[in-house]
Design brief:
The structure holds 2 protein chains of 2 kinds.
Chain A lengths: L5 E3 L2 E3 L5 H13 L4 E5 L3 H8 L2 H10 L4 E6 L17 H14 L7 E4 L5 H4 L4 H20 L3 E5 L9 H10 L5 E6 H6 L4 H8 L3 E6 L1 E2 L25 E2 L10 H10 L6 E3 L10 H19 L2
Parallel strand pairs in A: 3-4, 4-5, 5-6, 6-7, 7-8, 8-11
Antiparallel strand pairs in A: 1-2, 9-10
Chain B lengths: L5 E5 L13 H13 L4 E5 L11 H8 L2 H11 L3 E7 L21 H7 L1 H9 L4 E5 L4 H4 L4 H19 L4 E5 L9 H10 L5 E6 H6 L4 H8 L3 E6 L16 H7 L22 H10 L5 E4 L7 H15 L3
Parallel strand pairs in B: 1-2, 1-8, 2-3, 3-4, 4-5, 5-6, 6-7, 7-8
Helix pairs in contact in B: 1-13, 2-3, 4-7, 7-8, 10-12
Chain lengths: ~300, ~325
Amino acid sequence: MDHWRVDTARGPMTQYGSRRLMDDFVKQISAVGFEGLDMFDFQIFGLTHMFGSIEKYQEYLRDHGISKIVNLFRGIMYDPRVADPHVRDTHDGIVESTRRMLGMWQGLQIENLIVMPASLYPDTAPVTDDKIKAAAECWNRVGEVSAEFGVRTTGHHEFFCAIRTEEDILKFYEWTDPRYVSFFCDTAQHCIAGVDPVELYLKLHDRVSGFHFKDTREADTTRAYANRPDAELMAPQTARWFYEMGTEGGLVDFPRLMGALREHEFTGWITVEHDKANIGGDYAESTALSMWYAKHVLAEVYS
Amino acid sequence: MTGTARLGYAINQWKPNFDDFARTEQHVRALKVIAACGFTGVELRAGSGRWEPLGRPASIAANYGSAAAFTGLLRQLGIEAVCSWYFDPGEPIGEELSPGRSVLDSGDHKAISETVQPFAEFLAAAGGSRLVVRALPSAWQAGELSAAGVTTAAEGWNRVGAATADHGVRVSLHVDCLSAAADAATLGALLEATDPALVGLTIDTAELTLAGLDPVAVYRRHRDRVDHVHLKDTRYVDESGERLAPHAEAAMLQAGGARGVDRWFYECGTSGGLVDFPALLAELRADSYPGWLVFESEQTPNPASSVMLNGWYARQVLGC
């Protein structure tokens, strides 16, 4: 995933700040052995300015050892007035904006369009079956559109997303069409929400289209998921929820998960993520530590 | 130092990225630094969304309980006022489902003047008196400005100024280095077309210098309109016109432009700095300037260090 920040003469900057910073980023992730890249959709406009087109950016990635952009994370800011999966009146807008976006960026050779399948928990609560069904209807339609572009729509359940408990997640996938909606397993997000990601994978393995492998050191014990206006950065419990794989005190049982992947012969992409590594850490170091863990611990289980 | 002028600090430097500086304990630490260095006012920057807790009055209320609770906290920490709030009408406002507005479009004037009302109300209650606004969009976006375009913008700011005047808050035109207003003739025409009773001018020393304008000369020409001051330094002048090129925000300001400039803005008194702060202060003193002197240090690698350096310069060199 493209979370990345480095200290510069003007303070912390992302790789999207300049071509020089992008060069450094791509060389570093390539150097440790990563082959693909996940990114947010809202970065594409900046990349288009930096490289001339998204196709040229992909060529640049290939030239530097990164074979493709694997997944695109759609950063919709849900708002019940215009775009919110549990508000049926907004579905047409979400579907059509997806069609426009994928049409505009057909040069992207992505596999998955990752979405948070519901709005923030506090903006949706109480979470009812009807609201989950509404979200399922929304993503079935979006998934049908994305399939026309050869892209799978896949649900990524942040711990603060309205569809966050195991019971509600399973309902959502029961009510979505397997042809159009897949499941994207983010290990740390589920752990924080009190859901065992391995058990969830075992239950939904035939729906899984990818992973974000990251760790956490603490589950949400304070109902942080309900914190207004934000849980990810502003909840009192902690300023940093996420860590790289192999972190001391990490809650995710990655070896057990890899055993489950081996059991079900998973052959897709696994994306490594260490969101917010800048908070008391360093993105470059987290990237290298993650790959060390993948090569020396996970590969022993399944590769 | 200049009669009744007071020293403030712009807090924007603590938020280099959209997801930085979202937690209240970070705000408290920043405010303590500002207070410790002798600044008694803080300038906020308008922003939208849940990760901009200081971006709008409603966001402050949501995060601090109420506007009064926030100003109470400021005073407890040693900050007397939110002296000013920076507002760029071109930026998206999610809360209003607005992708951004322009004073060059008369159809946007009503919405802009309504949007700023809560900011003015907040400032009035927090001891502030200036809504610092981006005078004109970036030059590459505005295109060649006609006299009619300048008139439209002036009408817009007059309307906004009238809306905030009810709260005792003046609109002050801020000219950044990319703005279409960073041109002596355009700025002169825009000021000429606006109502002096409603609309003033912010002198931003580094932005004007980078755009090739001498801030002291701009002050001398428009001294009757200057009602707010931003103090920061730069080592550069854009002599090749990069600031006028498409997407200068990314290509020049962010990426460093053709020269690969690491950092465009510095603390006052930086080695190689181009701004003549003593000359500007002499002019302000001569006029008994009664407003705020707001120090800035965006693009700093160390916000606290920059506040300390600016605090030393204000006291030891400028005699504030």
